[in-house]
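Case study: HD domain-containing protein.
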Amino acid sequence: MSIPVLPDGSVARAAVEYVRSFESEPVANHSIRSYLFAVLLAEHEGVAVDTDLLFYACILHDLGTSTSAPGKQRFEVEGADLAADFLTNHGYGADETDAVWEAIALHTSPGIAERRGALTCLTRAGVSADFGIAVDCVTDDQATAIHRGYPRLDMAAVLVGDIVRHAARSPHAAARYTLAGELARERVDPDVLTSLERAAATSRWGS
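Here is what the predicted structure looks like once written out:
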């Protein structure tokens, strides 16, 4: 079975360039892999979804951890805002941008994202799959091809570092019991791995 291909339209290419201009290569690759895994999961489950919007929700989902984010709110919310601005500036309407906004804002919210429709559910599922969660439907050949094109490069450690740096910019960016808030508290000792890094390291893909 082959792997999905990235959209090749002008806006899709601009989105990849936008992400790569603000995110590190490990995080940008994570965002791309999240989309590829999300498409494979949708095909496996027979779920109908707008793959155009799924691409933008996945590719833009970590913009809130980047230097383009203002650092005043949770990274998920700021990433959703940046994604909505990008899509609006490229001609997408309110219904489409709102759908992508919700998918990104809820991608770290288990039990909620799954109740908000196919786009939000699959965005979270694709991101989770890149951490090795619920990936039985992905063959070894598909995984090898995806990781050859978009290598991991110690993604988990880099992403956690970016989330923690963003969290340090404002108390509102690291509210208690949010992902960022808990990772920031776990990273008090930089030599001790966070629970997210430990989970990634022992997953099917590794860190």
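For the exam, be able to explain this: The CA atoms of residues 5 and 36 lie 8 Å apart.
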